[in-house]
Amino acid sequence: MRLLIASRNRGKVAEIRALLGPALQRVVEVVTLTELPSVKEPLENGKTFAENSRLKALHYAKAHKILCVADDSGLAVEPLGGLPGVRSARFAGEGASDESNNAHLLHELAPFARPWKAAFVCVATAALPNRVVAEATGKAEGEILPEGRGRDGFGYDPLFFIPSLGKSMAELSTEEKNRISHRGKALRALIAEMKAAGLILA
């Protein structure tokens, strides 16, 4: 059987492949958007991570007639009232780079006293062409650092500090990150739901 990961983000795809594990990938052909014919991207106009995750999963499942896993995730910063939230990837504007988004976040936080408490949130959805078949949410709690640390990860990872580990998300190995990250938690739960429903066998 085939399973589509609805993403072109290489960092995200690598994380999801690692979470699926080699045993599952021996019986499931995992493909990404870069390996399939190009289709029009859905308009991510949902007000929540769950709405965006569902619309992406259903859109690509229908377009490619395939079981599809999509996620929507982002950063919710307490002093900013939950921003950047669903606008995490474009906090500094449409097409903004990770560096621009990080710089904009620190600019917005400058008037507030530390600690800048925050959480990464992820909603992962599995869909067939006509319906959502599984969904799960994961969250990672932490704080925003005043400057980036670490060279791994992507997005806001260098600024996201996990007090219990004494490291930023960008200082973690892939294995460490998948163990505690919002995406890791959401996808492990989603994969368990899909197995329980008989959608994937491993």
In words, what does this structure look like?
This protein is an alpha/beta fold and 202 residues long. Helix content is 34%, strand content 25%. It has 5 helices and 7 strands, in the order E-H-E-H-E-H-E-E-E-E-H-H. It has helices at residues 10-27, 49-64, 98-109, 174-180, 182-196, and strands spanning 2-5, 29-32, 67-77, 116-128, 131-144, 160-162, 167-168. The protein has a 7-stranded mixed β-sheet. It is globular, with a radius of gyration of 17 Å. The model has no long low-confidence stretch (mean pLDDT 91).
Average pLDDT, rounded to a whole number, is 91
Oligomer: single chain
Helix content range: 25-40%
- The helix/strand series, from N terminus to C terminus, equals EHEHEHEEEEHH
Widest beta sheet: strand line-up = 2-1-3-4-5-6-7
What is the end-to-end distance? 11 Å
Concise synopsis of the structure shown:
It contains five helices and seven strands, in the order βαβαβαββββαα. With 202 residues, it is an alpha/beta fold.
Q: Tags for this entry?
A:
202 residues, alpha/beta, seven-stranded mixed β-sheet, 7 strands, 34% helix, globular
Secondary structure elements and their pairing?
Blueprint: E1 2-5, H1 10-27, E2 29-32, H2 49-64, E3 67-77, H3 98-109, E4 116-128, E5 131-144, E6 160-162, E7 167-168, H4 174-180, H5 182-196
Parallel strand pairs: 1-2, 1-3
Antiparallel strand pairs: 3-4, 4-5, 5-6, 6-7
Helix pairs in contact: 1-5, 4-5
